[in-house]
Specification:
Subcellular location: Cytoplasm
Protein name: Argininosuccinate synthase
Oligomer: single chain
CATH superfamily of the largest domain: Argininosuccinate synthetase, chain A, domain 2
CATH topology of the largest domain: Argininosuccinate synthetase, chain A, domain 2
Shape: elongated
Keywords: Amino-acid biosynthesis, Arginine biosynthesis, ATP-binding, Cytoplasm, Ligase, Nucleotide-binding
Distance between the termini: 85 Å
Organism: Brevibacterium jeotgali
Mean pLDDT: 92
Radius of gyration: 25 Å
Structural class: alpha/beta
GO molecular function: argininosuccinate synthase activity; ATP binding
Strand content: 15-25%
Number of domains: 2
Largest sheet: 5 strands, parallel
CATH architecture of the largest domain: Alpha-Beta Complex
Length: about 400
C-alpha cells in the first residue's frame, strides 16, 4: 500500500501547490484535510474539490465551527486576548484545533507523516509543529514550502504551469487567513509599511467613515461567556457571527500593526475582527464591575502571559493550562449585561449591570444617602503614606531638596 501523508489544507496557494510537491518529492499519496473554523468565503465543497483537482487522493472537511467557538474563541475572550494590545490572536487560536484534527486524520488514514503549508518566516509553522509534538510526538511533520524555500512567485508559477485551480494570482498577491474570530491579510503591497490599506483589503468590515445609523446592542454574559444578544439566546458561535455582521457594518475591528513575530521578524499585518473586538470590549467592562481590585490587577498580568503563550504556539503547554485554571476561576461572578452602541468604527459601552456587581451606589454616590464613612479616610491616608513620609524625612536630614 502506498504511503499516505495528511496535509492540513486551506485551499490557498501554498497548500494547493504543496499537494503536487509532496507527491513528487516523496512518492506518497496526499490526503487533504480542511478544518471548517467558520472561515466562510469559498464554499467548503469547492475547497474539497480543489484539493482533489490538485492531486489529492482523498479530501474531506471537518466541521469544527462550534468546537472552535466554544473551546478556543471563548478561552481567548475570557483572557481578553490582545497581542501587543491590539491583535485578538485570530490565527493563533485556530492552529491548535487544526493540529488536533490533523492528528485525528493521521490516525484515521494510517499515516505516520503530516504536512502543512507554512513558510519559514511565519508563526504558524511553530504553532502547528509544537501542537503536533504535544499531541502526537510519534508523528513526523514536513513543510514543503519552508523546507524547499519556495517563494510566492515560484508557487504561483508552479500553479499556473500545472493549471492548478487557485485563487491567488500575480495581480492579487495577498495572503489571507480567516475564521469566525477574524481575518488576517498580509504580503503584497502591504509589506511596504508606508502604504495604507486599500479598500479591497477588507471583507469583514465596511468603511467606518461612512457608517449606517448607530446600532445599540445588549450582550448578556454568564461566567464570562456570551449567552444572549438583545435578550435572544445564542451559542458562542452565533454570538460571534451576529456581532461580526453588526459590528462589521460599522467598520469596527480594523487593526493595522507592525507585529513582533516569534521568529524575530517584524511583520506588517492587517486584521479584521469585528465580533471579537466587540465581545472583548464588553467582557472587559463587565469584569470592571465584577472582579475585585487586586484580582483584576493580577489577571491583567495573567492575560498578557496567556496571550503570549497562545501567540507563540504553546496552547498545549503546562503553563498555559495552569493559567487557564486561574482565568476560569476568575469568571465565577462575571455575569450580567453590557449595553453598547456600535457606530463609526467604535463599540462604546453605555450601560452595565450585574447581580454580582461590586459597584455599590451607596458607597459611590456624593449625594444624600451615601454609606461611605468619610471620617475613616484621614487615618487611612496617614497609614498609607507613612513609608513615603519617612523616606521624605530622611531626604531632609541628608540635605536633599526635592523642590530644586
Amino acid at each position: 500500500m502506498t504511503e499516505r501523508i495528511v496535509l492540513a489544507y486551506s485551499g490557498g496557494l501554498d497548500t494547493s501547490v504543496a499537494i503536487g510537491w509532496i507527491h513528487e518529492a516523496t512518492g506518497a499519496d496526499v490526503v487533504a484535510m480542511a478544518v471548517d473554523v467558520g472561515q466562510d468565503g469559498e464554499d467548503l465543497e469547492t475547497i474539497r474539490q480543489r484539493a482533489l483537482d490538485c492531486g489529492a487522493v482523498e479530501a474531506y472537511v471537518a466541521d469544527a465551527r462550534d468546537e472552535f467557538a466554544e473551546e478556543y474563541c471563548m478561552a481567548g475572550l475570557k483572557a481578553n486576548t490582545l497581542y501587543m494590545d491590539a491583535y485578538p490572536n485570530v490565527s493563533a487560536l485556530s492552529r491548535p484545533i487544526i493540529a488536533k484534527h490533523l492528528v485525528r486524520a493521521a490516525r484515521q488514514f494510517g499515516a505516520t507523516t503530516v504536512a502543512h503549508g507554512c513558510t519559514g518566516k511565519g508563526n504558524d509553522q511553530v504553532r502547528f509543529e509544537v501542537s503536533l509534538t504535544s499531541l502526537a510526538p510519534d508523528l513526523k511533520c514536513i513543510a514543503p514550502v519552508r523546507d524547499l524555500a519556495l517563494t510566492r512567485e515560484a508557487a504561483i508559477e508552479y500553479a499556473e504551469r500545472n493549471e492548478l485551480p487557485i485563487v491567488t494570482t500575480k495581480t492579487n498577491p495577498f495572503s489571507v487567513d480567516q475564521n469566525v474570530w477574524g481575518r488576517a491579510v498580509e504580503t503584497g503591497f502591504l509589506e511596504d509599511i508606508w502604504n495604507g490599506p486599500t479598500k479591497d483589503v477588507y471583507e469583514y468590515t465596511d468603511d467606518p467613515a461612512f457608517p449606517p445609523p448607530a446600532d445599540e446592542v445588549t450582550i448578556t454574559f454568564e461566567k464570562g461567556i456570551p449567552t444572549k444578544i438583545d435578550g435572544r439566546a445564542v451559542t458562542p458561535l452565533e454570538a460571534i457571527v451576529e456581532l461580526n455582521q453588526r459590528a462589521g457594518a460599522q467598520g469596527i475591528g480594523r487593526i493595522d500593526i507592525v507585529e513582533d513575530r516569534l521568529v524575530g521578524i517584524k511583520s506588517r499585518e492587517v486584521y479584521e475582527a469585528p465580533g471579537a473586538m466587540t465581545l472583548i470590549a464588553a467582557h472587559r467592562e463587565l469584569e470592571n464591575i465584577t472582579l475585585e481590585r487586586e484580582q483584576a490587577r493580577f489577571k491583567k498580568q495573567v492575560e498578557q502571559r496567556w496571550t503570549e503563550l497562545v501567540y507563540d504556539g504553546q496552547w498545549y503547554s503546562p503553563l498555559k493550562q495552569n493559567l487557564d485554571s486561574f482565568i476560569d476561576d476568575s469568571q465565577e461572578y462575571v455575569s450580567g449585561e453590557i449595553r453598547m452602541v456600535l457606530h463609526g468604527g467604535r463599540a462604546t459601552v453605555e450601560g452595565r449591570r450585574s447581580d454580582s456587581t461590586l459597584y455599590d451606589f451607596g458607597l459611590a454616590t456624593y449625594d444624600e444617602g451615601q454609606t461611605f464613612d468619610q471620617s475613616a479616610a484621614r487615618g487611612f491616608i496617614d497609614i498609607f503614606g507613612l513609608s513615603s513620609k519617612q523616606a521624605a524625612a530622611r531626604d531632609v536630614r541628608f540635605g536633599k531638596d526635592k523642590l530644586k
